[in-house]
Amino acid sequence: MRGPHNARVQTALSTDDADETLMLRYAAGDMAAFDTLYGRHELAVWRFVLRSVKIQAVADDLLQDVWFAVARNAGSYEARAKFRTWLFTLAHNRLVDHLRTARNHTSLDAADDGSEGRPGLADTLAADSGFGPVRQLQSREQAAALVRAVEQLPFEQREAFLLQAEGDLSVQEIAEATQVNFETAKSRLRYARASLRQQLQEFAP
To answer: 144 with 133: CB under 8 angstroms?
Structure first.
């Protein structure tokens, strides 16, 4: 993928560089900065999109679209918010565009979602997500039950939950990414968690 400028900036990158710093360097033409950002965030975005559209081939296409959007918008990027929030805002917008035109939706197959060994939702729930009772899922049955429960959530609640569980976004960042106010994002998370807890009571300790 080409950067926003043709020139390459040959500068040493540190693994400790903040995402925002890397994005600004990429906007100035540093392709290595883009590679670092992609390596850090590609999997989280892919999981978020996959759990939303439920079809790997579609998720792969949308993932590519998201990173092309990063490239297209690099020149106008300003480090006013966390890069991760900005990135998941792009993912949200692309996902909404897709769902507006999509006609068919298939069910998630929790046993084999085509992820080819990538960590699944059950393996990547944020430790501080407040999900609680099923934070530690030990069996394939539990993982399958969780994925089915997440699939049954209304889209807005599912998206909010996945942005936290897969994207590790705070409530405020979820609000910014989905372009709603804080209380709406908080409410969507609260309803999602309540619904998931109810559906997964048998796995509570």
So the answer is: no
